[in-house]
Amino acid sequence: MSHPNTHRPPTPAVPAAADPDWKPWSTAWTKHVPVLTGRTDLHVHVAPGAGGGAPECFYPDLRRIEVDARYIADTPDITDPRKAGHKKIVPTGYGLLVHGAAHAAHSLWTTPPGTPPVLAEVAELLEESRAEGRQRGRRRADRRWLRHIINIVVHPGTAPVDDPWHAGVLAALLLARVDARILTSKDVRAIRAAVTTVIGKPRLHRLREIWKQAHTVDDHDAITMIRLARRWCEVLGIDPWRQRQVPVADAGMFPGRLDQALTDLLASLTGITPADYRAQILARRNNPPTDWPRTDPTPEQQAAARRLADRIQQARVHHPETVRRGTVLPPGRLRTRQAIAADAQAAAGQTPTAQPWQHRTQQPPPKPTLHLAVLVDLSGSMSSYAAELSSAAWIFAHAARRGEVVTTTIGFGDSTTLLVPPHGRPKQVLQMQIGGGTYTFCDAVKLADQLLGLRHARTLRLVAVVSDGDLDDKPAAQKIITTLHKAGCAVLWLHPDGYSQHTFADTTTITVADPVDAVSRIADAAVAALENS
Question: What does pTM read for this prediction?
């Protein structure tokens, strides 16, 4: 559903397996789908994993709609699909069926052979709102169910960067549904503002003219849909004959206003706050694998956390300054005006609040809160560092809690793993497991930025990376590091001795002898940052 060209292919790449437990749903919805489509030649298949990787998929050549049962419920006995009221119990699942029915009834054109992939993608994007608008025109009540799948049509990551292409994707998938009378202008107010910021009002107005014309295209007219897709690309500055493939997000760019507006929309559709919604996404995407072992902290680890906390505290009180404070009682300098005010309050029968005396005291200067992100390379070459850095993650978390520091530890490899979240105080030491590549370094930096606000100058920020620097996408990594550097966030790169080395610009790169040395360097850098702030 989030990638339109994946849920209307001619035939499935891998046939969906049948599930006997969900067969009653397949049977009931097959009997019901003629009501939704006006066609009697369709079959509905419901099973976990059905849909060819999408929540729902329509296969025109097979005349079949597949719905992934995982978007309906955990178990098939949640309700009886033969009863009319079942749709209220599983509105998202039924919305997927209605969406598939809309394509079955109205998406009767196919992409001409030889069409550049980018044009085919745009045409499919435009087809989303066109098909749903036609479905609503035939069956007005179906709008209710189509609204329930908006948080499946788009998802966090649909617009990972602020560029014209991804602004156009949100415009086609969300703003066009307003003119299709599925969503309202109020629903997408923030999306419209973000898209306008990225591409401007004139281009958005031209895109709207295109999708409104698409809504009038005949169900079989592929030529017009491709022509409109070509106009769409022209508006966004894309030459489909030179740039035939679908544009991809620049991994070296941080998410921007598009992503923020989309997250706010999805949170409101879910009925929770954006912060809670992001927490749910983090838990689903970045939680450590359940099979990673956990161990109780040793006395040595507990002592190390206390020592680091003491060092941080001392750094925060370094170079005390003389400040003047008011007080009710001597010693100190008598302030005549305050003394008269205190006498007047007492004479009026009030409790004196004036402070007649002033004295000097030594206090530490205010220090900014240190936001520390530790990024750990989980590729196979870093196996000797796993145990010590697992211990360090626990130590930093507990020391930070006492020292008014916010820290997080994130692993990057084949996936991004949040080992210790900000303000976390794990009871046990999570033993990270090594293996795989370094594909997700940029994702790990973006996650750290999301958690700690690394690009915002209101805090003291430090990123410490423990890695040999042999990353899969070095140009993107350099771009994202440079962005942090320009934002005032220091990047400390700890390179293990004896490994082939790649040094990134805009970092402080130090070769460390062993894992213990790496942990010590991070602690020293955190303390020095506080002392020098």
Answer: 0.85
